[in-house]
Amino acid sequence: MYSQTVAALEKFDNQHDFERMCADILFALGYKDVELIAPRGGSDGGKDITFTTESGGRGLACVTLRGDIEKKFFEDFSKRRAGEFEKYIFFCTAYLTAQQKLKFAQYVVNTLHAELVSQDIEVLRSVLDSVLPSIREQYLGIKDDKRALFESMLATARDDLQKEGQARLLLDKAHETHDLLKAEALVKQAAELLPTVRLEEYLQLGIRHAQTVIDGLPLEISGEYGQTFRVYTKDMLAPHIRSALAYLEETVLHAGLPDAEGLLYLACIYGYQKQFNEMITTIDKALTVDARIQEEFRQPRKLEILLLACGSDRSKIEQVSQKLGIPTVTKETFCSFITDFDLEGFTGYIKWIAVKRPNTPGEKDVHIINVCPPYVQYDGLVCAHSQVFETGQIEGLTTSPQFVTVETLYDVLSRSFILVYTIKREYFYL
C-alpha cells in the first residue's frame, strides 16, 4: 500500500535535518535531556543524539540515511564500550528485517550490555502518521488534521515501545537459562507483551524440549561389562514430550512455519511415540523445506528414535532408510567397514545401529551393536554384544568361540538383527 510518509522518508537526503527530526521524536516520546552532538556538522565520533532514559540512565541515538545499513550499524556501534550507555536507539530510513533487528539487538546486549530499540522506516512511518503529525508536517511537509487524537495515540506509542523493550529483556533471560520451566514462563510473559515473537519463540521452546527427550535425562545404569550408560527415564520425560508436541505442532504444523529444524525434532518426537505415519509425513515435509536436513536425521540418537516407530517391520525400516539416503548393509560393506576401520589412537567399540528381527529371543526394537575391533592381539578376530536402545540393557551375542572372523560375526548378527547404519566415530562418546 502506498504511503506518502514512506515516500518522503525514502527521498530524505539531509542528514542534519534527519537528526533534528529524530531528536524531536525522542523529546515527544518523553525522553529527557535530548541533545544533538553536532547539529551543524563535523565529527561526532559515531554519537548523534544523547538523552536520559526512563530510569535516569544515559542513552544514545544513532541516526543514518545510509542504505548499507549493517556496515553503518557496526561502524557506529563498534566505537561504543560496554556500560557506556544504558540504552541505544537506532534511527534509519532502511527496511530492517526481523533477522537484522535480532542480530543488532543481540550485539548490543552481548557486547555493550545495553538495550537496543531499532526505529526503521516502517516504525518511523507508524509513529509519524499516528502520534506525531506535527513533526511529520514540519520535516516532511505532510499536513494532518487529526491532532485531537495526539495525546492518546502518543501514550499508546510509548506503551508499545516500553512493552517491546521489556519483552526483549525477558527473551534474553529465557535464552540464557538452562531451566526450561523458567524459560517457558519468561517466553510466555514476553509473548503477551509482544505477540509477534510468539511463533518463533514457541518453536525454540519445542526444540529445546525435544532435545531433552532425544538426549535423555541423566540416569546412569551399569552393564555387566562394567560400563555405564545414560538412558531414557520415561516418566520424567513425559512432560517434555507433551510440551515438545504442543509447541512444535502449533508452529510447524498448524501455523505452517517453514522450519526444517522444527520439523526434524517433531519427527523425532513422533518416532519416540511410535507414531510411524505422522513421523514419515513430517520427515517428508522437513526434506521438502531443506534437503540438507537429511544429514541431521542420520545422527545416531535421532535415527535410533526414528527407528523406534518402525518396530521390527522391515518395510518401514527400508522406507525410513530410503528417505534418509541410508544404503542397504551387505556382508561386503559390513566386513569392509570393520576391517578397514582406523584403529590408530582408538579405544572402544565399533558401533552399528540395528533392529532386532521378529521372533528372535531377547528384547525387541532398536539395539546398538558394539563390536570389539579386530586388534592384532586377537589375530584380527572380533566379538560383539548389543545394547537395547530404550533401556540400556546389555545382551550378549552367543558365538563359539567368543572371537570369530568378521564374516562369521556378520552371519551371526544378520540372523538376529536388521543392520541399519554405522555410528560415525565422532559420535562414539556422546
Question: What key phrases describe this protein's structure?
Answer:
Serine Threonine Protein Phosphatase 5, Tetratricopeptide repeat, 430 residues, Trna Endonuclease, Chain: A, domain 1, five-stranded mixed sheet, alpha+beta, five-stranded antiparallel sheet
Structure description:
The protein is of the alpha+beta class and 430 residues long. The chain has 3 domains: 4-180, Trna Endonuclease, Chain: A, domain 1, CATH 3.40.1350; 213-323, Alpha Horseshoe (Serine Threonine Protein Phosphatase 5, Tetratricopeptide repeat), CATH 1.25.40; 331-427, no CATH class. It is built from 17 helices and 12 strands. It has a 5-stranded mixed sheet, with helices on both faces. Strands 11-10-9-8-12 form a 5-stranded antiparallel sheet, with helices on both faces. The chain has a two-stranded antiparallel ribbon with strand order 6-7. A hairpin with a 5-residue loop joins strand 2 (49-52) and strand 3. The protein is elongated and about 95 Å long. The chain starts with a helix and ends in an 8-residue tail after the last strand. The mean pLDDT is 89.
